[in-house]
Each structure stands twice: as C-alpha cells, then as structure tokens.
Design a protein that fits this description.
single chain; six-stranded parallel β-sheet; 14 strands
C-alpha cells in the first residue's frame, strides 16, 4: 500500500540482523518500538535470525525467527541469509509497511517492497563511515565506501531514518532526498534514580564507601572499544584514586579484557549479561560514573539509561553521544587517559547536581515520542510525531 494516508491498522513487518538474547541497544529498541506500535493499534511483526524457525506472540507483537548462520568471530550474532525464506515470510505476512534494520545484507528487501507496493523504511543505526574506520580503513577510503553503500540504500527505500543528526550527516553529505529523523527513547519508568539508602546498599556490593565506582555496560566487541575503560581505570588508580570498574555485558573480547586487567593489576569485576532490567537499573543507578567509550555509537542506549538512573556518563567525543548527553556528561578523547580525565571532570561536580542533571537530560527522550516519530516515518502522523524534533539534540 502506498501514499501518505495510512489504514486504521497497519501490519508493520520489521527485519533485523545482529540481534541475540544477550544483545543490548538494538534488541531493546526493537522491543519498545514494537510494543508502541501494538499499543497504537497496529500489528507489528519482527523477523530475526535464530537457530531454528519459531513464531511467538509477545509484548512487542509477533516475533518470527528464521534459521540463520552464525557470523564468525562475532560473539553469537546470526544473519538472515536465506533470501527465499525471507521472501516467503514477507509474502505470507502481507505487510503494509516494511522497516529494516540492516543496510548491508538486507538491503535487497527495498526492491521487494517496491515490487509489491509496500512503503519501506531503512533505519540507520550507525555511521557506515565510522564502522569502516574502526575496521582499519583510512578516513577518505571509508567515506568513499560509505557514500557508495548509502547511495544504494537511498535508492532502495522510500525513506532512510536516522536517530541522530550525527548518523544523518553522511546521508546529508550525498544529498539524500528521502532522509527523515526520529529519536530512539529510554524507559523512564524502569530506569529511575535509586533512593539514597537503596543506592548506598547496592553500591556496597561492589565498592567501599571511599571508592569510586565506574560501570561499563556494553557489548564486549572491538567496535565498542571496551579496553579504554580498563585503561582509564589504570590511569585513575595510578593517580592515587581508589577506583573500581564493574562490567555488565559479554562478547568476544571478554577474556582479553580480563587478561589486560590482570596485567595492569586493576580491580575489574565482570558480571556478564544482565537479563533482568531491575538489576541493570540498580547497577547503573549506584555508579559514580558510567563509561561509554564506543566511537561509533549513535543513540547509545546504555548511556541514556545511565542518565535516566541519575548517573553521569563519560562518552567518546567521536560518537553521537556528546550531543545527546549534553551537560549531563563529558566528551572524552578516545584514549584511556582521555576517559580518565573525563571521569575526573565529572567527579569534580557536586554529586546532587550531577545526578539531577543526568535525569533531567534523559527525560527529553521518552519512548512515546520515539514511537510517534517512527510511525510518522511510516506515514502515520499525529501531533506528538510532528513536535518530536523539539526533543532532539
């Protein structure tokens, strides 16, 4: 179905790769968006890769898993590589709208949507230029390759949706005529500041009263640069600061990080993936500072959840996060020393002031506004969607 007018009840089929039971930001975003679409009266369907085929009704609508191979050396990520199986599923579901969250292996679905008269949106969750640079490609070559990839994406879909201006910049560079902006969100109810007594009790599980508690909540993979958190810890302790790092997350670099911490003789505690949101909220809420060293983060959900819990963040100056965290964080140089300095800057602020600023910044990014903006990209407009840009940084 085409055109700006939307039926009363849309079937919105969403396709995504790089989603596992222990993955972070993308999985959380998909869940909240699907739940929002469902609450708005639509029929959301999410198709993701897995070990075997399954179909289950959930709080975010129908979730269909299709068999997909494991991507080597990627910590368990799978891909939807069986094009015929995906096409058959799309035909069976008969979508009114198609929303895709992988502009590499799934870009072909834009052509399928056009042939079947289905309005399509590609969601750009990252900077292709930034990702290519983390893989070692020099800046000019990375930009040129990203331009070719992005131009093909622009041609294939009715709209390209970016969640930050930072992510949109590379599409503006090529003059994309179908670029739209919409934020992601943070769960302001589940992620809330802890009362002082509860914060002290939770903090005591990890650190003493005179220690500085740092938290890294991240997938432990190369593009996230988790080693910079360990290096920052070593720098801080070398200056005489009694700091401790707690790591929530898993990934292919887990053992390497543990070995580095042992060589540097710094206290790092690895918790693995925290599946319970309550446990994650308590951890983020009791920290003094949360670190977000990934240089290609776009929305950076873990950083925004930390702010919602009242904890300031030190973020990579190369990512989209400086514009999102605003005065509630510090943009750090992309080195361990740079993050150590950012931590020092945040700790120099009075605690009540920095915690209040963190929560206030997070409150600009609720999920209802994000859902409204995504639906607007699908041609479903309402007042909340049309005014959402006022909350974007």
């Amino acid at each position: 179905m085409t055109g700006a007018s939307a039926p009363r009840r849309l079937t919105v089929v969403r396709l995504a790769n790089f989603v596992t039971p222990v993955s972070g930001g993308l999985r959380t975003a998909l869940r909240h968006l699907g739940a929002g679409y469902l609450a708005a009266g639509h029929r959301p369907v999410l198709i993701v890769p897995g070990e075997r085929r399954s179909s289950q009704e959930t709080e975010q609508g129908l979730v269909v898993t299709l068999p997909g191979p494991v991507l080597p050396a990627a910590g368990g990520y799978r891909l939807l590589t069986d094009r015929r199986a995906v096409e058959a599923e799309l035909t069976r579901l008969g979508p009114d709208r198609l929303e895709v969250s992988d502009r590499t292996t799934l870009r072909w679905t834009g052509g399928w949507a056009r042939r079947h008269g289905v309005r399509s949106v590609m969601v750009s969750h990252e900077s292709a230029t930034g990702v290519l640079r983390t893989w070692g490609l020099p800046g000019p070559l990375a930009a040129a390759a990203a331009d070719r990839l992005n131009a093909a994406t622009v041609r294939a879909y009715d709209s390209v949706l970016c969640t930050t201006e930072w992510a949109a910049a590379e599409f503006r560079r090529i003059g994309a005529p179908n670029l739209v902006r919409a934020p992601l969100g943070v769960d302001l109810e589940a992620m809330r500041p802890l009362p002082p007594a509860a914060r002290a009790a939770e903090r005591a599980r990890y650190a003493g009263p005179d220690d500085v508690l740092l938290v890294l909540c991240s997938r432990l993979s190369a593009e996230k640069r988790p080693e910079r958190a360990v290096e920052a810890l070593a720098r801080l302790r070398a200056r005489g600061l009694s700091a401790i790092l707690v790591v929530a997350g898993t990934g292919p670099l887990r053992e390497r990080l543990a070995a580095r911490a042992a060589r540097l003789r710094v206290p790092v505690r690895f918790l693995g993936h925290l599946s319970r949101r309550e446990a994650l909220a308590r951890l983020l809420g009791c920290a003094d500072v949360v670190l977000a060293p990934g240089p290609v983060e776009t929305f950076g959900l873990a950083a925004m959840e930390a702010l919602a819990c009242g904890t300031p963040v030190a973020v990579s100056r190369s990512s989209a996060l400086p514009g999102l965290v605003g005065p509630a964080g510090v943009a750090a140089e992309d080195t361990g020393a740079g993050f150590a300095r950012a931590v020092g800057d945040l700790l120099a602020r009075p605690e009540e002031q920095r915690r209040a600023a963190a929560r206030a910044q997070a409150e600009r990014y609720g999920w209802p506004a994000a859902v409204a903006a995504f639906l607007a990209a699908h041609g479903v407009r309402n007042r909340a969607a049309e005014t959402v840009d006022g909350g974007l940084a």
